[in-house]
Design goal:
This is Transcriptional regulator. By secondary structure, the protein is mostly helical. Helices cover 84% and strands 0% of the residues.
């Protein structure tokens, strides 16, 4: 992700650090034999945090990266097809 606003990078890194913390928490919960319900709720929080991070990066991709690719002379249809394929994978 080149030419990204440093504040945007910090926002993404903060979200990823939060995810890392949630994962460490789930590991501890499993080691401490916590209930399945508690563990599943933490996993939902992890999934949500990862999804929000993906959305931020997808927005950046759609607003900047695609335009850069087209402006650099890449085939518009190929760039669009690749973008659609990548964004579809996000929702699988």
């Amino acid at each position: 992700m080149k030419d990204v606003n440093p504040e945007e990078v910090q926002k993404i890194l903060t979200r990823l650090k939060t995810v890392r913390g949630h994962i460490a928490g789930v590991e501890r919960m499993i080691e401490e034999d916590k209930s399945c319900e508690e563990i599943l709720l933490q996993l939902v929080a992890i999934r949500s945090a990862v999804h929000k991070t993906s959305v931020i990066i997808a927005q950046r991709y759609a607003s900047s990266c695609l335009l850069e690719a087209i402006d650099s002379g890449e085939d518009r249809q190929e760039v669009l097809n690749n973008a659609i394929e990548t964004l579809m994978k996000m929702n699988q």
